[in-house]
Amino acid sequence: MGAIGSVSLEPIVKYAGRAAIFSFGAIINITLIITMLYWKPNPENPSIFFVVAGFWGFADSIWQTQINGTPKIN
After folding, report:
1. Do 59 and 28 form a contact (C-beta atoms < 8 A)?
2. CB 35 within 8 A of CB 55
3. Which own/partner contact pairs does 1-6 have at CB distance under 8 Å and 24+ positions apart?
4. pLDDT tens-digit profile of 22-35?
5. Rounded Cα–Cα distance for residues 69 and 41 (Å)
6. Which of 32, 41, 61, 72 has its CA 20 to 30 A from that of 17?
C-alpha cells in the first residue's frame, strides 16, 4: 500500500500542497489509533485486519514520502 500511496500522492501535492497532505496523513493516523483503541477483533471477520493495515500503510507512505521530499533548511 505504501508504494501505491507514494505514486498517487505526487499529483495531489502539486494542487493541494504539502500541508494538506500532512494533515490528511495525521487524520488517517488519529482515526486508526482511535479505531484500534475501541475495536474488539473478531476472528470470524478477518477483512477488518487487512483494511486497518492497508490504511496504516497508506498513512505511513504519506509521512515517508512527504518528509523525505521536504526541502532541507540550513
Report:
1. yes
2. no
3. 1/53, 1/54, 1/55, 1/57, 1/58, 1/61, 2/57, 2/58, 2/60, 2/61, 2/64, 3/61, 4/58, 4/61, 5/57, 5/58, 5/60, 5/61, 5/62, 5/65, 6/61, 6/64, 6/65
4. 899 999 999 999 99
5. 36
6. 32
Name the residue ranges covered by the structural domains of the chain: 2-69
Positions of E strands within 1-74 = none
- Indicate the pTM of the whole model: 0.79
Gap between the Cα atoms of 33 and 70, Å rounded: 25
Count of Cβ atoms closer than 10 Å to residue 33 Cβ: 10
